Amino acid sequence: MHRLIPTGDAARPVAFAEVPQPVPEPGEALIKVEAFAPNRGETFLLEQPRAGYLPGKDVAGLVVQAAADGSGPGIGTRVVGHPAQGGWAEYAAVPTHSLAVLPDGIDSVRAAALPLAGITALRLLRTAGSLTGRRVLLTGASGGVGHYVTELAVGAGAELTVVTATPERGERLAALGAEVVHAVAAARGPFDVVLESTGGPDLPLALAKVRPGGTLVWFGQASRTPVTLDFFQLLSGPERVTIRHFHYAGAPYGSDLAALVRLVEQGRLHPEIGRTADWAETAGTLVDLRERRIRGKAVLLTGEGR
């Protein structure tokens, strides 16, 4: 079969290789991949790929071999999955605990755009707690996670302010009901909850906008710049603020995938697809994703998904 593997070349980060089909473990199903969606974090891992790294965590396709242990969906079932790696290929072995069945009304393109960004949004909002009537600030809202958090948080009754790099990137979030600003300093606090994903100088600015007793959830560092906090500046800012570290990862993912699928089916969540292309265009798409030239999710189609 064909698989995309890292090259270590920033200008062309992946290339096709002919490899054997994966052999599933007893608790894994073999999926014929129809569509997959790269994430910006994966583009960073491809800059200096570790030995044996096989990219690909967000896939949708068809079960062609059911799990030997009897768990999970049967042959011929359409699914969305979140394997640990290896999804940018014609076939992927995916643990059945990280699969969800797709209804007829959800195509593989929309399904592939759900896993990492959608699971992150769900788990992030659970960490934040009830948002009904609360003032919330979301930084770094331009990407897939930002879109899902915005739609879900506004739907839950939050008064949401989002920070995006440009007005163009903020248009869709404003349409979903968020107040859009283009710098953390421009956000009108105080906020009950801050969801912070950029790091660098933005985190201290966002922290200063938390109300006394509020919470900042730190879930990323998209700026790739470390954070510096000044103890004495904190003394002059809001009191008793809680800073929580958050990372989405932790299988099983199947129940969260099923929840995302239900939300899409009910019309309560709408994946934003900024680019759909043949997987022959993956290398260029990864560069555009890394350089933020794609708004929303990028989805690549294999032979069966085209």
Automatic annotation (TrEMBL):
GO terms for molecular function: NADPH binding; oxidoreductase activity, acting on NAD(P)H. Residues 9-300 form the Enoyl reductase (ER) domain. The keyword NADP applies. SUPFAM superfamilies: GroES-like, NAD(P)-binding Rossmann-fold domains. InterPro entries: ADH-like_C, ADH-like_N, ER, GroES-like_sf, NAD(P)-bd_dom_sf. Pfam families: ADH_N (PF08240), ADH_zinc_N (PF00107). Keywords: NADP, Oxidoreductase. This is Zinc-binding dehydrogenase.
